[in-house]
Amino acid sequence: MIDIHSHILPGIDDGPETMDETLEMAWAYERAGFEAVIATPHHIPGTSWHVHPETIRRLVSHVNDTLVHEGIRLHLKPGMEIGLAPEVPRLLSEKGLLTLADSCYLLLESPFQRLPLNWEQTIFDLAAHGYRIVWAHPERCGQLQEEPELLNRILQLGGFLQVNWGSILEYNGSDVCAFAKQMIGQGRVHCMATDSHDALSRRPDNAVAGMRALEDMAGLETVDMLARENPGRILRSETLNNVAPAPGASRERSNGTRRFFQWKRR
Ligand SMILES: [Fe+2]
């Protein structure tokens, strides 16, 4: 398996602080059956969550050397989790951002409260420049929970959706879990990922319990598509496959719950 969303690099964002903690995460990945991980530190334009691409490439190379030395069969690739903002197309043209494993795919996250102004134009501009969008954990965005019809707009603009394994295990609350499962049942989700930050709670091997839950809910074919096939397609810059909607899944949902999340990491 391949994880396309991970904060495994040491000392760079809200992931592990030391190489020892990074190695603990790497062991957990190996035990869970992962062979490759895209390291995606946060980069949110206009905030202190800012990291240079070359810093990420150097760290990835250093961690990979350490993994070989420690006998851990896991390989890291460079990436970023980029905050959706109007300056993203410009920053990409200036080589200030990384795609996922140097593919055509970008991992974008929105604020947990409201989508940024002109977000549709930003997505449109990125698509016009040949980038494909993987939208990180849409289930955790309050506005998307309230206005799930916006998911159609994201998909129409060529975006793909990535849900966290922890979300379907209720690690982010029952509303988030219900919304995540609804999106999966509707066939709107393209990838699952760990979004792991440590070896304690937001750990890589949560994926194992997540896969059991997803298999119970949607079957082994869906698990294979969301956990293995589509993440592999991202590495090869191929178009992602849709999974079939569950029989009787409704296309819309609104729980009427207002949520007021700011940019926050947990
Ligand atoms: Fe993340």
Quick synopsis:
Helix content is 38%, strand content 14%. By secondary structure, it is an alpha/beta fold. β5, α3 and β6 form a beta-alpha-beta unit.
Overview of the structural elements:
The chain has 266 residues and is α/β, with parallel strands linked by helices. The chain has a single domain (2-235), classed as Alpha-Beta Barrel (TIM Barrel). The chain is built from nine helices and nine strands. A six-stranded parallel sheet has the order 3-5-6-7-8-9. A three-stranded parallel sheet has the order 1-2-4. Helix 1 (19-32) links the parallel strand 1 and strand 2 (36-39). The model is unreliable at 252-266 (pLDDT under 50). Residues 5, 7, 81, 136, 195 line the site of fe (ii) ion.
Helical coverage, percent range: 25-40%
Spatial strand sequence of the major β-sheet: 3-5-6-7-8-9
The dominant shape is globular
N-to-C SSE string, H for helix and E for strand:
EHEEHEEHEHEHHEHEHH
Oligomer: single chain
Q: Look at the structure and give the CATH class.
A: Alpha Beta
What's the number of structural domains? 1
Largest sheet: 6 strands, parallel
Strand content: 5-15%
What is the overall pLDDT average?
91
Q: Segments where pLDDT lies below 50 for 5+ residues? A: 252-266
CATH-assigned fold name: TIM Barrel
Number of strands: 9
The CATH superfamily title: Metal-dependent hydrolases
List the ions, cofactors and other small molecules found in this model: fe (ii) ion
| CATH architecture group name | Alpha-Beta Barrel
Number of helices: 9
Instruction: Report, as a whole number of angstroms, the end-to-end distance.
Output: 25 Å
Class derived from helix and strand content: alpha/beta
Radius of gyration: 17 Å
